[in-house]
Amino acid sequence: MFACGSGLPLPSDFLFGASTSAHPTEGGNTASDWWHLEHGDAAPVPEPSGDAADSYHRWPADLDLLAELGFTDYRFGIEWARIEPAPGHISRAAVAHYRRIVDGALDRGLRPMVTLHHFTLPRWFADRGGWRAPDAVDRFARYAAATAPIIGDDVRHVCTLSEPNLVAALPTAAAVPSPRPPLPDQAPTDPALTDPALADPALTEVLVRAHAAATAAVKEASPAVRTGWSVASRACQAVPGAEEAMAAYRHTREDVFLEAARGDDWIGVQAGTRTRIGRQGPLPVPEGAEVTLGGSEYYPAALGEALRHTASVVGDVPIIVTGNGIATNDDGRRITYTRRALEDLALALSDGLDIRGYLHGSALDGYEWGSYRPTSGLIAVDPHTFLRVPKPSARWLGRIARTGILPWPAGSTSERSAG
Known about the structure:
38% helix; disordered C terminus; 419 residues; alpha/beta; TIM Barrel; two-stranded antiparallel sheet
């Protein structure tokens, strides 16, 4: 495969699509810990999820749009709280619902990637101590086994846990049974959210074991499925003299989870911004820097840096970009950001990195873990009418998916071997 002219041709089996997570898009996830958190007397979130994008009912429209735009792959999540709303009770209706989404994707020419867990938990599980309960790993493995009819023999990729390093490191992990990601107006580089001292080694170990147990349960029913998990990656950059502090920070927050993936079928990379590390830990966003609606620094080079670091840790494990994007109301900036990310992806491929797919995050505007204000979707969703309207970025990215040619950075060598 060679870059020539202005693009890099992709392998025919390269995954190119978009991602969603269940709670921010489905709506009405009433049996989950997050729903309870949103509606508590002292709710720590600005607004509840409510109907979100109503994708639980409107998934056919979502899949129609993604297929029409030209995408070939769709990553979506299933809710443990819907599959097992009470301990030991498996909802046949919920299992059948998610299987219909798999069938619907396949019917439209979209290859589905199924995510088993993305932050939210059944309330009953959270009330028992969440991931800190003595039987947490066994409970998660039994849930994973119950998803067998959804996965079947035609889902190629399953993600066990999405961003477990955030689950293990957020300070709320010590305050409530299930941790939550940063609220939209809290910059991820805020030291209060990212201090490695807040990472819980015991919780990290539980999540690693849960991933292994879920992988075994899924493969017992579907031996051909390719399993992995997705790690939230930030391009870590040490200021002069802070190299050791950065290494310690990165190991606690990221590398231990990448190391746990060395025996997996693939590793997911979710990257959007950078973290600058000083001798005392993470530094705030540089003064005057452009920031997204989520408070993160606008830093499109994050993906390329995250891909190369991940490859240096996991060795020969294939990489899939499971989430890359920004929260912004300026869709032109989204296109500019994504173009740079894809150019860096092309360079990484040309340098021989084993990257098997790119899934933009998010496919839809929705509930951004505490607020509807940040918009990170390729497809705009009216929160009142639920009307879906593809943005220019969706059509631009869909054309890349249809042609199978990544943009090549201007000024780079015009021909370089890839793979």
